[in-house]
Automatic annotation (TrEMBL), chain A:
A Pfam family assignment: Fer2_BFD
UniProt keywords, alphabetically: 2Fe-2S, 4Fe-4S, FAD, Flavoprotein, Heme, Iron, Iron-sulfur, Metal-binding, Nitrate assimilation, Oxidoreductase
Cofactor requirement: siroheme; FAD; [2Fe-2S] cluster; [4Fe-4S] cluster
Binding site for [4Fe-4S] cluster: C639, C645, C679, C683
GO molecular function: 2 iron, 2 sulfur cluster binding; 4 iron, 4 sulfur cluster binding; flavin adenine dinucleotide binding; heme binding; metal ion binding; NADP binding; nitrite reductase activity
Lineage top rank: taxon: Bacteria
Protein's name according to its UniProt entry: NAD(P)/FAD-dependent oxidoreductase
Methyltransferase listed as a keyword: no
Amino acid sequence: MAEKLVIIGAGMASGRMLECLFEAAPGSFDITLFGAEPRGNYNRIMLSPVLAGEKTYEQIVTHDADWYASHNVNCRFGETVTKIDRKAKIIVTAKGDTPYDKLVVATGSAPFIIPIVGKDLPGVRAFRDLDDVNAMVEAAGKPNAKAVVIGGGLLGLEAAAALRLHGMEVVVLHLMGHLMERQLDPAAGYLLQKDLEGRGIKVHCKAQTQAILGQSHVEGVLLDDGTVYPADLVVMAVGIRPEVRIANDASLYVERGIVVNDQMVSSDPDILAIGECVEHERICYGLVAPLYDMAKVAAKTLLKQDAAFRPVETATQLKVTGVSLYSAGDFADAEDRQEIVLRDASAGIYKRLVLKENRILGAVLYGETGDGAWFFDMLRKGTDVSEMRDTLIFGQAYQGGSPLDPMAAVAALPDDAEICGCNGVCKSKIVGTINEKGLTSLDDVRAHTKASASCGSCTGLVEQLMKLTLGDSYNPAAVTPMCTCTDLGHDDVRRLIKAKGLKTIPAVMQELEWKTSCGCAKCRPALNYYLVCDWPDEYADDYQSRFINERVHANIQKDGTYSVVPRMWGGVTNAKELRAIADVVDKFNVPMVKVTGGQRIDLLGIEKEDLPAVWADLGQAGFVSGQAYAKGLRTVKTCVGSDWCRFGTQDSTGLGIRIEKFMWGSWTPAKLKLAVSGCPRNCAEATCKDIGVICVDSGFEIHFAGAAGLDIKGTEVLGLVKTEDEALEHIVALTQMYREQGRYLERIYKWAKRVGLDEIRRQIVQDHEKRKAYYERFVFSQKFAQVDPWSERVSGKDKHEFKPMATVEYSQAAE
Amino acid sequence: MNWIEIGELSDIPVRGARCVKTPQGKIAVFRTAENDVFAIEDHCPHKGGPLSQGIVHGRAVTCPLHNWVISLETGKAQGADEGKVRTIPVRNEGGKLSIALESLMLTAAE
């Protein structure tokens, strides 16, 4: 008797696998096929032309009931598989059990539905199957109907164009900065947007959807910036997720998709998986070519023949009539890559090739895509293009033509002109290094030449040199990436962490497509801060992504010893505390004791191994960490105020202590130093602090955005409030706004300059609800932040950090 | 080779490092995200910063003092910085870690 083969999922991958099976060895299996949709197999890729009315459903059917019947496939369409029982080797549906010898899971993917209010309202559709298409066509039939498409990727744009053809008013909302960011670079994305807008489709990029509005049916879409788009139909096309629920329930090895080996076999040797539900070498595929490859391999594996699935390069074309667009391969910038760009704005043509070691790595073509296949062929074969490099971009027909004009000469400065005074770097060194190492970003130039890496005042000059050297490919207006691990800037990353609900560093790196496996010393601490700030109750701090000072809660010094600064609330201390400090100094032979600028005492030169013991003694006297090392609240400097001073107008010391006790432990983008002065004579120097208070007779003048470090800058006035309670609420709300918007390591004065003082005053002073909301969020996050790190470590946390792993003695080493 | 046991893989945090004290100075033993183990001198070629205290990323560590990035495989400074720190042979046998100090002794005797 033939072996029993059961297949879950009647989509394109399983259809192709059956074709291969029947071609190679008809009748070798007794086949049962389950499909959730109540119909046979059709070419899902062609749903867009069906929606556009350019094709009919009948034209896109690939396997109908007759085809399955003629190959003796027992079809069970519309019947949902509820369970795989791997022990008994049966699958379970509402109608009973079906035994299998071999099982193929081809459950495909499910559309990702953004978890927002209103997502379940009638009129909200995904774009995945024929039912969705039928519902959309019906909605388009009403007069003056409006559609909002969420998602400016391949699928969303095809839906938008098709709905527009039906006469609907269409708005496309896209979370990222440009359309189809997975396939297109920003320039091509821009051309596409212009093209679509020319067809009457409104495109809104960087649009963060907050809610879908409506009572009994969808009525509109609300964005987080307050924009509302009316809608009779909302199409969610933001992406797909591998459909792995049944595999998960069966305890198969599942990561993002069902994990398979090169033979498409899952963690159970009798269960194979193919299609969009699969993860192979950590990649999930959504395009048809690799899925067909998987189908072929799976058929061979079932027939006990040798075959191996290998990851493949894929090419994409947008199926919108009248738009020519082609993209293939990898076109991200990188140090070791070069690019060739051709633009013809009047003809609407843009072509970009990315090369590495004279081989094509990626291609983006817009407006004229005839050479796409030619480029793609060379890309896959790894053809050496050095011979035709000068004319490559013009396409196949131009090979053998005349080469491009050489680059314009670099501007008139002599080669030995000094550009960067701090590091003594001259022009020829910068230009030479850019060329030699293929540098493309300011960060690269800083790393390799040190030019503009210190004070930064020559940055403009360096950028001009880069433009001269690199031409069009250098675009300084573009967002500066966080670091070389990503192309995204800090603001985009922060926005996407919230929008996509990313709650771990690996999730951020996976979803935002980090270019390195585990980041670098620049991005990891930043991501850790953003996650701590955005998900205070859910995110588990990543210890290994913190700078050493924040790991050991002391400040590293040039000789590798540490300094210890206990908190002295508002700069006030007493005899007991001072005695305890003196005892510690004696007991541990502390070489240096110094009063800091923030009104407390610094113990310098402490060996790392002694830290817990030092903290234990300080803790006995009631000291907690002063967090003098933290990107967080440092000190609140005070003067003696109305209790003692003959000029004091308010209890500045008391308010300072109150603020410090309220805010200690909070993490901020950069260090945060506060001060409270009891009168405008300002002895606490509050007007050059991150946040300062000047007490006056009528109340409290709140200041912010001062600086007294690399830059010197007096504060700006936030506003005047009457009571201490109000002062605290304003300061806390301001801090929270900065916490939520600041870029990592960006001091408050730089943030304020970027956001605008008026905007900050509007949100913190004038908008009472906003201020209260910021305040509440700060208070909530403090619940998780106000834990003294010193006492934690005295009681044994992170013990390994303070002891050597081993000590090798002379005798051992000499053996 | 004179292999000396220094402890277990699990003694070192993932993407972290621990120190081993030896007569010739401290050695930093690193564990990467992929559980590869490397040992280098705990002394940045730039200004002697303790590399064991840096942030570990990929197969490199960033020095905590001035952000030099040192390759754990070669001990060489990355990017535009130039310098090299000594690498020490390290062995991972089923989670038990040993370093080879012979090379150290030879260097010391030179």
